[in-house]
Design brief:
- This protein has about 475 residues and is α/β, with parallel strands linked by helices.
- Among the domains are: about 250 residues, Aspartate Aminotransferase, domain 2, CATH 3.40.640; about 70 residues, no CATH class.
- Helices cover about 40% and strands about 15% of the residues.
- Strands 1-7-6-5-4-2-3 form a 7-stranded mixed beta sheet, with helices on both faces.
- Helix 2 runs antiparallel to helix 10, helix 4 packs across helix 5 and helix 11 crosses helix 12.
- The protein starts with a helix and ends in a 14-residue tail after the last helix.
- Belongs to the group II decarboxylase family. Sphingosine-1-phosphate lyase subfamily.
- One of its GO terms (biological process) is carboxylic acid metabolic process.
- It comes from Nocardioides lianchengensis.
Length: about 475
């Protein structure tokens, strides 16, 4: 058994660090060892518990009601509000769209209206549930345009969506104006606060300007907020809150049309581990309201210091309302090289591709744990920018660029995809025949940045398919216990 755990630790050594505040995407670190310990032990204690049947595991039901109650208080929910724990922000989004669609069975071709900055999870929901998604261009400040959103809404619209904040730019949409219009038409309005919902209420308490976005806005009918982001809980928990039980009821699924037990589910999952819920509950109980206020103070101090430390050729795309910062460059360098250079200095920052006429950016998801190392971060960023300027912008061969521009992703064969993946540097073969990933991604990202969104999607799907291939005959069988 110890050999298996040693192998596990060796495998994990190649992953990005989840502690220390140096990974500014994918993970959210409180910087508090005790919080991490409590969360992990709670996950382990409930790893075998099954949330499928709340009568079989009443402790899970109690913890879910406790966590939902905490979220409801935080988000100004009325006494009628109800909620559900999901596996993450995407599942919360899927259920928000599904419940809106199924609340209007009279609409044969349902649509949802979203700003172009809405999270891609809504595109996934529309794809899964056969709903048309209407994307509305945003204003110059990257916030949703209320008038344009209203103009895109009609009798087929079952849901209007706004963000608090949007992921790509970190700004809060004008929720009040959009939700008010939706309410006047009898349409649901969902606020995607998956990434901001656990910090924006504390930002307001700390005296920071935060536009109205919670259930205090009358037209808001549902809100999603993740606990494994700024709730600093272990991965795998989000809360989907509805204003009333009637708003949530279409979310439930029941089936007695088979000879087994009557299936009754509140989420996409049936069987679900009690571990993530227990971990979230334990972290909430450990930190409490005052603990989250302190962590929010830390993360906003880190954000303010980072924003103040940004210098040319970098610029902040738009002043952030929350904990997300987007940085753009001028023509002297490119963001993809900056990301590579930051990685070489032990920092992970996320590249974002160009879109709708806007330049590619460097994206930062700042955690409370980052505060202790802000000076180191700014030093590394300055060095990375200098190195990127010295190297110059990544150049894609004009012939390759023309070739990519002429491609139709709908007509490419598997052999075409394999050739493109190899040409782009996304995959390669080692001497042993195993898959090798590129050590630096700037050239790959620059090539992807030239591709249309549809071609990017096709290439990355092919890339994922090539990554996700089973290893056959490599193991000697189970290790004896």
């Amino acid at each position: 058994m110890s050999d298996v755990l040693a192998r596990l630790r060796k495998l994990q050594s190649a992953d990005l660090p989840v502690h220390g505040g140096r990974t500014l995407a994918y993970v959210y670190d409180s910087g508090l060892a005790e919080v991490d310990r409590v969360g992990r032990e709670a996950v382990a204690a409930y790893a075998g518990s099954n949330g499928l049947d709340p009568t079989a595991f009443p402790s899970l039901l109690q913890m879910e009601n406790d966590v939902v109650g905490f979220a409801a208080d935080l988000l100004d929910a009325p006494p009628s509000a109800v909620g559900t724990i999901t596996s993450g922000g995407t599942e919360s989004v899927l259920l928000a769209v599904q419940s809106a669609r199924d609340s209007r069975l009279d609409v044969t071709t349902p649509t949802i209206v979203v700003p172009t900055t809405v999270h891609a999870a809504f595109h996934k929901a529309a794809h899964y549930f056969g709903v048309e998604i209407r994307q509305v261009p945003v204003s110059a400040d990257f916030r949703a345009d209320p008038a344009a959103m209203a103009a895109a809404t009609d009798d087929s619209t079952v849901l209007v969506v706004v963000s608090a904040p949007s992921y790509a730019h970190g700004v809060v949409d004008p929720v009040e104006a959009i939700a008010t219009d939706a309410a006047a038409r009898g349409i649901r309005c969902h606020v995607d606060a998956c990434i901001g919902g656990w910090v924006l209420p504390y930002a307001a308490r700390l005296g920071r300007p935060v536009p109205p976005w919670t259930f205090a806005v009358e037209g808001v009918t549902s809100i999603s907020v993740d606990l494994h982001k700024y709730g600093y809980a272990p991965k795998g928990t989000s809360v989907l809150l509805h204003r009333t039980p009637a708003h949530r009821r279409p979310q439930f699924f029941a089936s007695a049309s088979w000879p087994g037990y009557t299936m009754l589910n509140s989420t996409m999952q049936s069987t679900k581990s009690g571990g993530p819920l227990a971990g979230a509950w334990a972290v909430l109980e450990t930190l409490g309201d005052e603990g989250y206020l302190r962590l929010s103070r830390d993360v906003f101090e880190a954000v303010d210091r980072i924003v103040a430390g940004i210098a040319a050729p970098l610029r902040v795309v738009v002043p952030p309302d929350s904990t997300l910062v987007a940085l753009a460059t001028d023509d002297s360098c490119d963001p993809f090289t900056i990301c590579d250079e930051m990685a070489a200095r032990g920092w992970y920052v996320q590249p974002q591709m160009s879109y709708d006429g806007h330049r590619a950016t460097v994206h930062l998801s700042v955690s409370a744990a980052t505060l202790a190392s802000v000076d180191e971060f700014l030093t590394a960023l300055g060095e990375s920018v200098a190195a990127a300027v010295a190297a110059g912008p990544v150049a894609v061969d004009p012939g390759v660029a023309a070739f990519i521009a002429a491609l139709d992703p709908a007509t490419l064969s598997d052999d075409d995809f394999d050739g493109l993946l190899a040409a782009s540097g996304l995959v390669g073969e080692s001497d042993s025949g195993s898959l090798e990933l590129p050590g630096r991604m700037a050239e790959v990202n620059a090539m992807l940045d030239l591709a249309s969104p549809a071609m990017r999607e096709a290439l990355l799907v092919a890339f994922l398919d090539r990554l996700s291939r089973p290893v056959r005959g490599a193991a000697g069988g189970p290790t004896p216990l």
